[in-house]
Amino acid sequence: MTTRILTLFLVLICSNSATAQSTVSPYLNVTSSDFAIVFSRLGRLSSDTYYGDNAFVETGFFSLLGDPEVSDSDNDGVSDYYDLCSNTEIDATVDTEGCETFSLPVDSFQIAVTHNPCTISEEGSIKISTELTGYEFLVEFNNQLYEWDSDTQELFSFEALTSGTYFLCLSPKTVSSYKRCYEISVNSPDPLEVQSKVSWQKQLVTLNLAGTGPYTIVHNDSVYKSDQAIEEIVLKSGLNSISVKGLSECLGSFEQEYFLSEEVRIFPNPVEDLAQIYIQGLDNKINLILFDPSGKEIHRSEEIIPENRIVELPTNHLASGVYFVSIQSKSVRKELTLIKG
After folding, report:
1. What is the mean pLDDT of residues 268-279?
2. What is the reported pLDDT for 70?
3. Which of 50, 243, 307, 329 has its CA 20 to 30 A from that of 188?
4. Using an 8 Å Cβ cutoff, are 130 and 152 in contact?
C-alpha cells in the first residue's frame, strides 16, 4: 500500500480560461466576479482512493475542485472523488459535486451607473438591462424586493439616488436560490478647496487647488481651464480679480481681489517748500489727499500727471511735522509719509 501526503493548495482561475470541458458553477453563487479562489486542506492519504478528513472554503463566481493526480472521467473540472454525477454532458454547468445545475452567462446583465454632479445631489441612478429572454427576475435592492419582466420592460432602474454604496441581487423567479449580486457605488465629485498665497515682491499669486477638476480659472478678462493642483498667476498693475470654480458651481467657488500698485516716491523728504511726487505707470491722472498729523484731511485734488510723471505738491504753508499723503488711480493705491522740515 502506498501513502501519499497532499499539502495546502490554491486554485485561481478565470471563467474563459478553464481547461475542463464543462463549466463549473458556484457552490454559493452570490458575486459577479469571474474569478474563484478555492482552498483545500487534505489529510494524510493511506491509499490512492482514500482521502480522509478534508475542508473547503470557496468564494467567487466559478469554482474548481480537483487534484491533477486524480482522474476526472467526465472532464467537468470536478475530480471523480468529489463527483456525484460522473457522466455529466460536455459543456453542462455543474456544481461542486459535479452535478448539472442552473447558471447564467457571466455577461447576463449590463448595469449603467449615473453619478451625482454635486456632493448633496440626489440625481444618481442605476439602470439594469439584459439580452436574456423568457425570464422574470426578482430584484433585491438594498433589502427591498421588486419584480422585473425583462421581456416587457427593457430597463429596470433606480432613480434619485444619493451618493453611497448599494447592494443589488438578481434571481430568476423560477430559480430563486440562484443569485447574481453586485456592490455598486454611486459617487459624487469632491468639493472645491482653494488656498491662496500672494508674493508682492514677485508679483505672483499661488493657488493650491483640491477637489474634482478641471478647474475654471478667471483672471480679469482671461479665462482658462486647468487640472493642476498648483497654479501660479502673474499679477498685473492695478486691480486683479481672480476666481476659481470646480467641475460644477455647486461644488463651491473662490473669489479674491489683489491690487498691484505702481510705485510712487516723494522727494525730497523731508521737504521745505515743494514736494515732488513721482508716479510710475501709464495712468494720466491721480486723486491726491493730504492729512495732517492728527489724521484730519486738509487737502484734496485731482492732478494731471505730466509727461515726466512728476506731480508737484506745495508745502510752504504747512507747519513742521509729519503728514500723510494718499494717492489713488486706476493702477495706484499708495499711502505715503511726508515730513515737513
Report:
1. 95
2. 61
3. 243
4. no
